[in-house]
Every structure is written in structure tokens, then in C-alpha cells.
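hey so i finally got around to running the thing on that chain from the lab meeting. sorry it took forever, my laptop kept dying and i had to restart like 3 times. anyway pasting the input first so we r on the same page abt which one it is
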Amino acid sequence: GEALLLLIFDGHCGVCARCADWVEQHDGARRVRLLPSQTPGLLAAFNLTRAQVDREAVALDRDGHAYAGAAAINRALRAIGGRWALLAGVYAIPGVRWCEDVGYRWFARHRGRFSRWGLTPWCERPGVRCGPDEA
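ok and heres what got predicted. didnt touch it at all, straight out
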């Protein structure tokens, strides 16, 4: 079937690539389409800026709604379904949402430090097409 959600992530981030791998492994129905933000033409196609996608992951649903940061990750979990959708439901709780948002923003700002743990960024994998960063 057609993907319910497009999840755009930093293809130069090893931890982000590992998270994308996790989504692929758990999304048997292929409800989430994964693309690195460095995919040629992607930003222009969805009217996104390099600053937006450098700051946080972005998820776009089929209705054109955009979700960013922790909200994007929770949308992906919801799209995968099953127990992951239940876990994503916890994000609706105001205190939990605040904690996830703060934690995500902190991690996103420091992701380069974590990516040094020997994780291969998506854009450095064989067969992956990443262009130069767009403006």
C-alpha cells in the first residue's frame, strides 16, 4: 500500500540513520516512507527550508499536515501501528509532550556528538542518492 507518512531526517546523522533503520525494521506494512533531507529536490517539492530540516525531523501526512521534532517521531510511531501507536498516544498527555519536545530539541542540537559512535550516516551508504545541501 501507499505510505501514510513521509518522514524526512538528517541523512548526515548516524543516530538519525539508525532510527530510520529501526522504523524500517518495525514498519512491515511500509506505512512510513523515509527520505534524508539531502535528497535532491525534496525541500523544494514540499516547500521546506534547510534551516527547518537541519533543526528537526519533519513528517508530512497525505493530507498535507506537517509535524516536526518529537511530534514527527510520534506520528511515525502512530503510522507504524500496533503497540507503537499506543506508545505514540502517550505524547498527547501535556506533561509528557513537554518532556519529549524538550528532550528532542536537546538531542537534535547535540546529535553530532552521538553520531561519532561509529554509526554510518544514511547519505554515506552505498546506493543512497544525496545531493548537496539545498538552501
